Amino acid sequence: HLGGLKLSKQEIVRDDPTNNVPDNIFWKLGLQLHRRDHHPLGILKNAIYDYFDANYPNEFEKFDDLCPIVSTKQNFDDVLVPADHVSRSYNDTYYVDAQTVLRCHTSAHQAELLRSGKTRFLVTGDVYRRDSIDSTHYPVFHQMEGVRVFTKDDWEGSGVDATTYAAEDLKKCLEGLARHLFGGVEMRWIDTYFPFTNPSFELEIYFQEKWLEVLGCGVTEQEILKRSDRVDNVAWAFGLGLERLAMVLFDIPDIRLFWSNDERFTSQFAKGQLGMKFKPFSKYPPCYKDMSFWISDSFTENNLCELVRGIAGDLAEEVCLIDNFTNKKGMTSHCYRIAYRSMERSLTDEEINELQWKVREQVQSKLNVVLR
Ligand code: PHE
Q: Which Gene3D superfamilies does this one have (predicted)?
């Protein structure tokens, strides 16, 4: 089994000049954490399936093995992402070549499934984004997409127009899901924008003293339905982040733990069921290193984070801009604080110093900045 990949990894051509997929990301392809029944992500996926099976028997078709390597058409054009949208940039998305990306959301499969005649489905999969480094962000994470199409029979007689009907059904469905998973938890709806839905909403959940965005959703843009020959229909769609929900649900303090093979982590999920809280097995001390440099125009925080991740791997806990100023000559200086910490063991000073020296060296040679 190739883990949803159409080709084995050896066959995937990676020498395209536009390829920006680093080795550490490439090796994560095909791992499919969401298909492991004794992993928190698999447990959560199954619990969401249970909710849909109980409330909509035999309605939603489930997909969790679609290839994460998709065309830019699937990932962007098919869901109406504008040509100049930031998510298309090489700074935000991993490109295999100019027309092929690692999907940055499970919405990449919406249009094709609609075109093939499906009207109710759930798509779960690994998604990839270049991003910052902290306890809730990791360049590979998992989403579940849900789509439900309605026909006139559904909303006629409801007393409201089709869009209102779909929006109300959507919120009811997702609030029910949140209650099914969490029982009581503080939540709020936020109005937002997505290219593929209108109106659009986000659900946030209160966690670790902050509001955490856990899903995006909305009423599907008519244009998407039109392109799949469904002019007289209305639909809703949602995309939820499995890691974030699982962190809240199981009390998992750091997103890197999902990738841990340490049996002090994995054994806690052996039962394969909801209803347990993760017991942290240790708290090893973090080590902070600061680094200041003059940036150039091409500098981006995502590039810095990827470089740090490439050297330190999962030992990088957080990369945080702590100072930022521009001098009279117009030169801008950034000071970043890097937190190194292992979830599994103590790190030695030597080990951290060596990582930090490599980071300093590569920041200069690859990011075109001048260390101060
Ligand atoms: N694709 C969106 C994201 O990744 C989530 C979403 C899915 C929003 C479906 C609306 C509808 O953030």
A: Bira Bifunctional Protein, Domain 2 (3.30.930.10), Ferrodoxin-fold anticodon-binding domain (3.30.70.380)
- CA 237 / ligand 1 centre spacing (Å): 8
Sheet with 287-294: list strands edge to edge: 316-326, 332-340, 287-294, 370-371
Pocket lining: 244 vs ligand 1, CB cutoff 6 Å: no
Q: Which residues make Cβ contacts (< 8 Å) with residue 5, sequence separation at least 6?
A: 12, 29, 30, 67, 68, 69
Q: Do 107 and 197 contact (CB within 8 A), yes or no? A: no
CA 239 to chain centre: 10
C-beta of 214 in contact with ligand 1 (< 6 A): no
Helix (H) or strand (E) holding 181: helix 162-182
Cβ–Cβ < 8 Å for 105, 93: no
Ligand 1 nearest-atom number relative to CA 106: 1
- Whether residue 321 contacts residue 335, with contact meaning beta carbons closer than 8 Å, is answered with yes
Q: 139 alpha carbon to ligand 1 midpoint, in Å?
A: 17
269: left (phi over 0), alpha (psi -120 to 50) or beta: alpha
Q: Provide the pLDDT for residue 3.
A: 82
Residue (of 246, 368, 251, 259) closest to 313 by Cα position: 259
Chunked mean pLDDT (size 10), the chain, 372 residues: 83 88 94 97 98 97 97 98 97 96 98 97 98 96 98 94 97 93 89 98 88 94 96 97 95 96 95 92 91 95 97 97 96 97 94 98 95 94
So what's the pLDDT on residue 364? 95
Nearest CA to ligand 1 atom 9: 238
Residues 6+ apart with CB under 8 A from 189: 171, 201, 202, 203, 204
From edge to edge, which strands make up the β-sheet containing 187-194? 61-63, 120-128, 140-150, 234-241, 210-220, 197-207, 187-194
Which of ligand 1's atoms lies nearest the C-alpha of 220?
Answer: 11
Task: Provide DSSP, 197-255.
Answer: EEEEEEEEEEETTEEEEEEEEEEEPHHHHHHTT-TT-EEEEEEEEHHHHHHHHHT---G
pTM of the predicted protein model: 0.95
* φ/ψ of residue 107, rounded to 5: -60, -20
Measured by CA distance, the residue closest to atom 10 of ligand 1 is: 217
